[in-house]
Design goal:
Layout lengths: L1 E6 L9 H15 L3 E6 L11 E3 L9 H13 L4 H10 L3 E4 L8 H8 L4 E5 L25 H10 L5 E6 L2 H6 L8 E4 L20 E5 L8 H13 L3 E5 L5 H7 L2 E2 L6 H9 L2 E4 L11 H8 L4 E4 L4 H4 L4 E4 L3 H10 L3 H9 L8 H20 L7
Parallel strand pairs: 1-2, 1-4, 2-3, 4-5, 5-6, 6-7, 8-9, 8-11, 9-10, 11-12, 12-13
């Protein structure tokens, strides 16, 4: 089977979760004997080790003109001759789309015209919101404008009937997009729990260090963490942060222990240096759980999270929820200082059985592919 994986930033390991998703799919398909070609709208900044075709010369992060073209492309969502020519050249059995800035949803119509079944994975709120978050830059919720945002969403959705199978990482994300993919069968595929490269360490004996790993931004709840730092310290809990983003100057000036951006082995060392993790998102996280929650659990560390979006679906066992305020975070963390509560939470940490969950995740995608092919009256090449 030959699959084209379409994503704005391809499988670029220097970017985010959608890129990791595409990269893991491409490698997994290749290991199962299939072919995977990645179609990226923008030039990758790091080598993903997969065959990649790049559509545009400039990255929207570096080019204001490219950023404007992206927004205009969303509004137009016209089938592109160049993408059509690429599909004719590659001749895939299936097209699997992810994030679409730089492409527009016209790619769905091009696949339909070529009688190629389409699978789409939702990663965020791009089809509803130009910022992809449904959140204002200051962290406040944003209701889509029925005029500008509504027109844009209708334009993006006009080819949605070509999507045969719709995948999301949470029930929440499917609910938010209900009714927008009239012909699609829908399925939740949870992100896999992958073992750390150097093996899993032992759980900590108690909670004295609480860690945050991720973007330093308003929507991720970083300002909430800074508000909680002093009362956490008074309760005997040190707060440590790692990552990068617009709130980095505020983090550096706060006096909280800040480790900068950590990647690769340094990331896992940071996770191991903390007793538990915190995911204080103020926006409705699309996945349930997102990669970062799974990374804390894989490192044998319990997690405190807000109940926003897909995060609510992850709560239970070693993932404990709290409300979206500094006071509620301090109360939840202080509760884990109790020896019995800590012991029970650690006992609920999930088992990481090698690559078993990664195989489950890939198997579920192959099942979706098989349904798309069968629905289109085609057989996968094996």
């Amino acid at each position: 089977m030959r699959v084209v994986l379409v994503n704005s930033h391809g499988a670029d390991p220097a970017y985010g979760g959608a890129e990791r998703y595409v990269r893991d799919l491409a490698h997994g398909l290749r290991e199962r004997g299939h072919e995977a070609v990645v179609l990226s709208a923008f030039p990758p900044r790091a080598d993903a080790g997969v065959e990649t075709i790049v559509l545009h010369e400039a990255d929207w992060r570096d080019s204001p003109a490219r950023r404007i073209r992206n927004h205009l492309g969303d509004l137009a969502s016209a089938p592109s001759r160049r993408i059509g020519a690429l599909l004719a050249q590659i001749r895939p059995d299936l097209v699997h789309t992810s994030n679409l800035p730089g492409f527009g949803s016209g790619v769905w119509e091009l696949a339909r015209r070529a009688a190629i079944p389409v699978v789409h994975t939702l990663h965020d709120y791009h089809l509803l919101c130009p910022r992809t978050t449904l959140i204002r830059p200051d962290g406040r919720p944003c209701e889509p404008s029925p005029l500008l945002c509504g027109l844009r969403s209708r334009r993006l959705g006009r080819w949605a009937g070509a999507v045969s199978q719709l995948v999301a990482g949470s029930e929440h994300l499917l609910r938010v997009h209900r009714g927008r993919f009239p012909a699609a069968e829908q399925r939740v595929i949870r992100l896999p729990l992958s073992p750390p490269p150097a093996g899993r360490g032992a759980p900590s004996p108690g909670l004295s260090v609480l860690g945050y790993l991720g973007a330093l931004s308003e929507v991720k709840g970083v300002r909430l963490l800074l508000e909680a730092a002093e009362p956490l310290a008074a309760a005997g809990i040190e707060l440590r942060l790692a990552g990068d983003g617009p709130l980095r100057p505020a983090v550096e000036a706060s006096g909280v222990r800040y480790l900068g951006r950590v990647e690769g082995a340094a990331k896992w060392e940071f996770l191991a240096s903390c007793d538990a993790g915190v995911v204080p998102s103020l926006w409705n996280e699309p996945s349930g759980p997102p990669y970062v929650v799974n990374e804390w659990l894989a490192a044998a560390r319990p997690v405190l999270t807000t109940r926003r979006g897909g995060l609510a679906e992850a709560i239970g066992g070693a993932v404990r929820g709290f409300g979206g305020s500094a006071e509620e975070l301090v109360a939840a963390a202080t509760e884990l200082r109790d020896e019995r509560a800590w012991r029970e939470t650690v006992a609920a940490l999930p088992t990481v059985a090698g690559a078993q969950d990664e195989r489950r995740w890939l198997d579920e995608h192959l099942e979706v592919y098989a349904r798309a092919l069968a629905k289109a009256g085609r057989e996968a090449k094996r």
